[in-house]
Amino acid sequence: MLNQIDLSRIDLNLLVLFETVFGERHVGRAAQRLSLSPSAVSHGLGRLRRLLNDPLFMRTPKGVVPTDRAIQLSASISDALSRVREIVSAAVPFDPATSARRFTIGAPDGVSAVFLPPLLDRLRTSAPGIDISVRQILPAHREVAADRVWREAFADLEARSLDLAVIPSDAIPARFHQRLLYQEDFVIAMRSGNPFAGTFTLERYCEAQHLVVSLAGDPHGFVDEALLKMGRARRIALTVPNFMFALAALADSDLISAIPRRFTVMHGPRFGVVHLEPPLSLPGFRLNAIAPNAAMADAGLAWLLDCLDTKAIRHETPDT
């Protein structure tokens, strides 16, 4: 237990440094986020190690990994910094017109590509000094429990390595504030002139060669489950790791793919990609922006959430 003399020697910035390195798992990236040199971050970690009597982070070829002690400390440090931030944010009114804050938003790539353009337009006119970092977040591989699919995103939010997350799920723990941004469904995307666009029946759909977006390269998705219930199957000729890659691949081939409607409407035309209604029933989903309840006391974070919740995204149905 630290005594009063020890507390008087503590530099609060060391706890911020710990939080950033813990979130990034990399000294160089942490240095960039903190606008410090890597040597300054290493020096700060040395001070923390002496203060807490633990190595805290062990170097690996890909960065650093936290020790058991660091993992134990992370929640307490995150909570302490959250309380400090609440105090400071309450004392200094947030003004988007003059703020120079950086916010980090986590979302799947097909989601961030939808909310980012209108957000950047808003920042350009009303908050020119605010910066945004977008991180791709992914569901837990092969996880089927609805409340655990996005557990890593929940952990990152609580560790404050993310300010907000936008996820396609309604299974949000009560400790998080959530707001519905928009509802989404799927269309079948293909290049303009694809021969399958002429007579697009279920039979023709199953005969086509398909592209599936899968970071892990898994050639089986929700469409295959729907087809299986109908006693049908399809050929997955290609998997790619993200939706922008999918549009580029569709543009240069006769492949077809089930892709979120708003993403396709917004970005398909630049690739010469068109879309049709699916010849089978595919599930829709809701996109919720979430943040820890305690973090919503931050006026800046509340403002950012309002910026994401725009009429253009939430209420308007994209043209098909």
Entry keywords:
single chain; 320 residues; alpha/beta; Arc Repressor Mutant, subunit A; D-Maltodextrin-Binding Protein, domain 2; 5-stranded mixed beta sheet; 3-stranded antiparallel beta sheet; 13 helices; 43% helix; elongated
Question: Would you mind describing this structure in some detail?
Answer:
With 320 residues, this protein is α/β, with parallel strands linked by helices. It folds into three domains: 4-91, Winged helix-like DNA-binding domain superfamily/Winged helix DNA-binding domain (Arc Repressor Mutant, subunit A), CATH 1.10.10; 102-180 and 286-313, 3-Layer(aba) Sandwich (D-Maltodextrin-Binding Protein, domain 2), CATH 3.40.190.10; 186-276, Periplasmic binding protein-like II (D-Maltodextrin-Binding Protein, domain 2, 3-Layer(aba) Sandwich). 43% of the residues lie in helices and 21% in strands. It has 13 helices and twelve strands. The protein has helices at 4-8, 12-24, 27-34, 38-52, 68-91, 109-126, 151-158, 202-207, 222-229, 243-251, 261-271, 299-308, 311-314; strands at residues 57-60, 63-66, 102-107, 131-136, 164-167, 176-184, 186-191, 209-213, 235-240, 257-260, 273-276, 285-292. Strands 4-3-5-12-6 form a five-stranded mixed beta sheet. It has a three-stranded antiparallel beta sheet with strand order 10-7-11. Helix 2 (12-24) crosses helix 4. The longest helix is centred in the N-terminal third of the chain and has 24 residues, at 68-91. The radius of gyration is 23 Å and the shape is elongated. 30% of the residues are buried.
